[in-house]
Amino acid sequence: MRSTASIMHLDLDAFFASVEQRDKPSLRGKPVIVGGLGNRGVVSTASYEARVHGVRSAMRMAEARARCPHAAFLGGRFDAYREASQVVMQRLRELSPLVEPLSLDEAFVDLAGGEHFEPDRVDELVTQVRADIQDLTHGLTASVGVASSKLMAKIASEVNKPDGAFVVAPGSELDVLGPMQATAIPGVGPATAERLRRVGIVTVEDLRGQSVDELVRLLGQAQGASLWRLSRAEDDRAVEPERETKSISVEDTFATDVTDRVRLQREVDAMARKVAGRLTKHGLSGRTVTLKVRHHDFETHTRSTTLPAPTDSPAVLARLALGLLEATDLAGGLRLVGVGVSGLADWVQDDLFDEPAPLLPDDQPETTETEAVPVAWGPGMDVHHDEHGDGWVWGAGLGRVTVRFETRTSPAGPIRTFATDDPHLSPGHRLAAPDSVEA
DNA sequence: TCTGGGGTCCTAGGACCC
DNA sequence: TCTGGGGTCCTAGGACCC
Q1: Strand partners, A416
Q2: Which DSSP category does A386 fall into?
Q3: What's the pTM?
Q4: Of A62, A74, A382, A393, which one is least surrounded by beta carbons within 10 A?
Q5: What is the structure's pLDDT at A361?
Q6: A343-CA/C7-C1' distance, Å
């Protein structure tokens, strides 16, 4: 907790729906619901006119339609949202370089990082920023909280929402926070709230009545200790402008459950390549590939494998994801599949063979007697080796090819490196994916 | 026609190493 | 020879956020 109210939290009101109303005047003053339009969609954002009818974020679209049949239902235009978001974030960076975006419509700003910050005139500053944002975005409104910590700033931005602001006077934090529900503290969701309720803890005041040890026993080390401090408004977390991406993933819920393995292989293959594309685009590579599946009964599982070195190769990521799918029971059908990559490194994969190649044996003939047609090995290709069996290419270059050997029962097989012209090596035929996938 | 998609962080157990 | 750490990495799952 700082001695001045220098942390700002800004939150754009009903962001997606507001952008739609801004761009389409006929929607202004009317209920607008943005979200998945398919039969399994959920609400992403509801305009305040729709919230009157009880429509909320994360609600099933079917229920939203029942509650508010006359609303406009829209699928969302993310390019437009991203553009509006950039305008807002840019304006915030004029206040201070220390801006931490939390999503497209939310950010923290450490005002003390700005050159001309005057704590006594924070109200003026907030009024000005909100007016500027409305101007620059052609009509979007924002709610703002300013306080001595991230916790209190975030809570403050809720107080006069929408289109309002609240500044927590330094010294008043405990009084502001105490009467609130424990769920007002970010990180206390339904599961935690229920655990707390069972031992009679409902408000922040109630939380303060517990010892650290008691909260740790109840919620675990990290959450227990954190909640003990946050309930006392003790929060010195810094605004972090440059947080590194930890994982990249893609997932899709099917309109109806899918049992067909070939169809699933096609989906997983495409997803892995999509993730690879996003990795490449950001100059990243990753070591751990995770396959997520949700069964017809909503039971959800993940499986992952970790490579010895990071990659952004679409073929490699697809092979690994398909290998994980291979080990999945499809009985009853899948409702969702997803592919993710973590263990990210910010160097681009290509240096697997950057080290000098080991010297080949002296007696290695320079030319072979029967001139074999050289194979251009590339990542993800099928390979057969006379001794080691079937595998696929994990890396190739500088006269060497690294092969990963795997079987149905052991999708994460051993890895061996050979000379490109190793006579025991030949193009393989066993495919983890059906031919249609390879096409 | 119950229950999205993209993330973050934490926990816990087992393997492995010192 | 037996016992017992601790630290790190990997996998799986869960809570939470927008």
Answers
A1: A403
A2: T
A3: 0.90
A4: A62
A5: 41
A6: 19
> Per-residue confidence at A129, pLDDT binned at 50, 70, 90?
very high
> For all residues of chain A together, what is the average pLDDT?
91
Q: Is the pLDDT of residue A266 over 80?
A: yes
Strand C-proximal residues, CB under 7 Å? Answer: A 57-58, 102-106, 186-193, 287-288, 300-306, 343, 412
If asked whether residues A260 and A222 sit together in one domain, one would say no
pLDDT value at residue A94: 98
Range of the structural domain that residue A88 is part of: 1-169
- Tell me, in Å, how far CA of A295 is from C1' of B7? 22
Taking 70 as the threshold, does the pLDDT of residue A370 lie above it? no
Q: Which residue has the tokens 């051993």?
A: A414
Closest-lying nucleotide for A271 based on CA to C1'? B5
For residue A318, pLDDT over 60 is answered with yes
**Å from the A189 CA to the C9 C1':** 30
Strand extents, DSSP E, A386-424: 389-397, 400-405, 415-419
SS3 category, A376: coil
> Is the CB of residue A50 less than 8 Å from the CB of residue A63?
no
A62 CB and strand B closer than 7 A: yes
Looking at the structure, tell me whether residues A273 and A421 fall in a common domain: yes
**Range in A51-65, A95-109, A239-253, A414-428 with the lowest mean pLDDT:** A414-428
Q: In what order do the strands lie in the sheet with A72-74?
A: A43-46, A32-35, A72-74
pLDDT at A207 over 80: yes
| Total of domains in chain A | 3
Q: Which residues of A are tagged catalytic?
A: 106
| One-letter identity of residue A108 | F
Question: In angstroms, how far is C16 C1' from A110 CA?
Answer: 24
At A11 the pLDDT is 98
Residue A111 token pair: 């005002």
Provide the CATH number for the domain around residue A92: 3.30.70.270
